[in-house]
Structures are given as C-alpha cells and as structure tokens.
Q: What sequence folds into this?
C-alpha cells in the first residue's frame, strides 16, 4: 500500500532522513520509533508532502505522490497529531466535517458521517455534536481528532505522537480503541512515537530510527528477540523485553488442558496481564474462559522467549 523508496531529506548540509526504504502493506500498522531528532516525524510528513523529500519517492497504491497536487493528496490521507489540533471555534461536528465539506459531499452525507463516527468513538451525537473543543476532556478531544482524520474514509492514516499529551490511563484506553478501530476499518496506519511500549502494542511492524537512519524494520517479536544494533537494544530496555514479549501474546496461545481455582480470565487477555495476576495473587495457574488453564511456568518460559510464537 505504502512504498517508501530511498527517501532522503537534507537541510543545507544536514541530512535528517538518510536513504530510508520500507513498505507498509494494506491494512497494517507501521510504528516509527526513535528518540527526539531521529527523523521519524520528517519521514512521516514526507508521505503526505508536508515535507518535500530531497531525493527518493513515496508511492501509495502504486502512485507516486509527487505526481499529485499536495492539497488533493492530503484530502485522501488522514492526519492526526499530538494535542488533537482541533479548530477551537468550530463545534465537534464542524471539525469532523472539515474534509468531507472540502470534497463537497452532500450535506446529508456529511451529517450522517459525523454521527457515524461519533457513535463509533462512543460519543453520543446528541450530546457532543454541537460542543466546542474546550468543553471536552483530553481523551474526548483526541477521539474527535482521530474521527476528523477518518471522516473522508481515507485508506491511509498518519498519526504523529497522537497520545503524547494524554495521562497514562486515558492513553492506554485510546491505544486500545485505536487498535480495535483500525482492525475494524482496515485502514493502513503509520504512527510516530518515542515510546517503545506503544510501538510494540500497536505496530504490526516497527521501524527503529536514529540520526536519520533506519536501523531495523521488523515485526515486534523479531525486534524484541533479535535487536539489530546496540541502539535498538537500549531503546527496547533490557529489563522491559520480557514484558514486551508477553504483551504480544493472548493467553489463548498458551492454554493447556487442566483445571485451576479462581475466576476465569478471557482468552484475549495478554500473557503480561496473566503473569501479573499470578504474581499478585500467588497463583500457579489461571482458568481460561472456554476451558483449559494457563500456568505460571508457561508464562515465565514465554517471557524468556522460549514459549509460543508471538506476532
């Protein structure tokens, strides 16, 4: 879906993105992760031509984006940024309707799409349609920002640190909601983050960048088990690798026959959460809804990278 070929951006004598090539299949999520100044945001902005590359090219659906007028390209690509970027004097409905109205959708279709998205993001249209951004919580503002980016049904959604301003509890819920929504809509998503845990949680593939260079581009489990460089290893955090690995796997992948006492956990519960439950309550095994158990021993083996396969 997205092909980035030998993309380079240079400002005078400084190369901020250096010969980067990667592809994002249709309906998948690529997480760009790195420290400040690594070039990840510049790379993202070259996809929709907010930044023009010095050399190389970007193709979306096989079409070179440099052949398209920038304003038309950006209407086809959703874009969400940290702090939501809502227009402060426009209502929620007017914010979400921005691109559909630029595309001259009929007004009844615009209204239907606004209400559809508000319902999708669990914001009752009757309550939220006519509110101004300052009347919303931070989490609600962020959801409206993502809804606006999705309003014209783009095949591609770009997100630049979209959850950076949210507190940890709201951020975790926003990440979970985004992942569920992306899977439902099949949108191809590229997200910039400085947080490896967020990259592991969301990305089908992770691109690790440093000083403009792409150091590794691989599925999360591959990066966790086989970091390509010392920088990648440090970014992961040696003490966090077992927990990252556990977060990638639902307990359904580790279920074995048996019985255990106590309340059953859902098959979709992450192995990380199952381990926390075992350790906190001193349990050697947990029953799983639908039958079977997950054992503390299997969870620990998996944390060491010797258990069932991760995504």
A:
């Amino acid at each position: 879906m997205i092909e980035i070929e030998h993309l380079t951006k240079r400002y005078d004598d400084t190369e901020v993105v250096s010969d980067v090539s990667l592809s994002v299949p249709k309906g998948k999520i690529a997480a760009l992760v790195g420290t400040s100044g690594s070039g990840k945001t510049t790379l993202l902005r070259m996809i929709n031509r907010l930044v023009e590359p010095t050399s190389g090219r970007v193709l979306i659906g096989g079409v070179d984006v440099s052949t398209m007028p920038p304003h038309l390209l950006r209407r086809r690509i959703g874009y969400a940024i940290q702090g939501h970027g809502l227009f402060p004097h426009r209502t929620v409905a007017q914010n979400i309707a921005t691109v559909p109205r630029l595309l001259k959708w009929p007004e009844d279709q615009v209204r239907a799409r606004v209400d559809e998205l508000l319902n999708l993001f669990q914001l009752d249209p009757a309550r939220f349609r006519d509110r101004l951004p300052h009347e919303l919580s931070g989490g609600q503002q962020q959801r409206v920002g993502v809804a606006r980016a999705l309003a014209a049904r783009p095949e591609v959604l770009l997100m630049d640190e979209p959850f950076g301003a949210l507190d940890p509890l709201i951020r975790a819920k926003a990440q979970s909601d985004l992942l569920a929504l992306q899977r439902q809509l099949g949108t191809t998503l590229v997200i910039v983050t400085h947080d490896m845990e967020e990259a592991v949680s969301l990305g089908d593939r992770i691109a690790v960048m440093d000083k403009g260079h792409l150091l590794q581009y691989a599925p999360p489990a591959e990066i966790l088990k086989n970091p390509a460089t010392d920088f990648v290893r440090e970014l992961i955090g040696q003490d966090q690798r077992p927990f990252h690995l556990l977060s990638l796997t639902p307990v359904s992948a580790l279920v074995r026959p048996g019985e255990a006492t106590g309340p059953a956990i859902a098959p979709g519960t992450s192995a990380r959460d199952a381990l926390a439950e075992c350790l906190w309550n001193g349990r050697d095994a947990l029953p799983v809804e639908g039958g079977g158990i997950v054992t503390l021993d299997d969870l620990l083996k998996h944390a060491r990278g010797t258990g069932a396969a991760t995504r």
Q: What stands out?
A: Residues 47 and 85 are 19 Å apart (CA to CA). The radius of gyration is 21 Å. The chain has a mean pLDDT of 89. The first strand starts at residue 2 and ends at 11.
